[in-house]
Each structure stands twice: as structure tokens, then as C-alpha cells.
Design brief:
The chain is mainly β. The protein has a single domain, classed as EutN/Ccml (OB fold (Dihydrolipoamide Acetyltransferase, E2P), Beta Barrel), CATH 2.40.50.220. It is built from 1 helix and 7 strands, in the order E-E-E-E-H-E-E-E. The strands form 2 sheets. A 5-stranded mixed beta barrel has the order 1-2-3-5-4. Strands 6-7 form a two-stranded antiparallel ribbon. The chain starts with a strand and ends in a 5-residue tail after the last strand.
Amino acid sequence: MKLCKIVGFATSSIKFEGLGAYKLVVLKNLDDDGNPMGEAFLAVDTFGAGLSEVVAVATGSTAAKTVNDKNLPVDAAVIGIIDHISINKKELYSKNKED
């Protein structure tokens, strides 16, 4: 699993049959300080997360198990919306304290 931040959304008028039930989100991984980093990537959103939310993301073959049809070509999926993150007693993120 990865911790990521939703930085945008993607729409597609044509996509693989069966993916129409899912919203596509644009994500960036979080660094050790809770800041978005690296290249953006797409994932299916199985929870309806919103812009700037921090989410847990499954990747690879595990991601495909999160959708109803296990044969869909899914390699990243939002599997949870995060409320709070702390590491070594340092709070990195709290949904209640978003700016």
C-alpha cells in the first residue's frame, strides 16, 4: 500500500468496458513529511474521495482485487480515505486540520 494525495481527476469518454463504474483520480505519492512528490499517476477510486484528500492506494495485482470484476485492467486503486497520520509521535496529516 501507498499513501497518496489526490491532486486531480481524469475523465474519459471511452474506456475499457467495466471501468465506467469508477471515477479516475490523479495521485502523487507522499514523502516522509507528508508532502506530494514524484510523478502523478492514475487510479480507480472505489470510495469517492475528494480533491486534496490523503488516501491509501493498493497497486499491482492487489489493486485488481478491489473492483467487482477481477478481470479489469486495474493496477492502482484507492482503498481507503485517511483521517490521520503520525509517525514517531510526529503528526504528518490530520483531515480535521487541512488548510
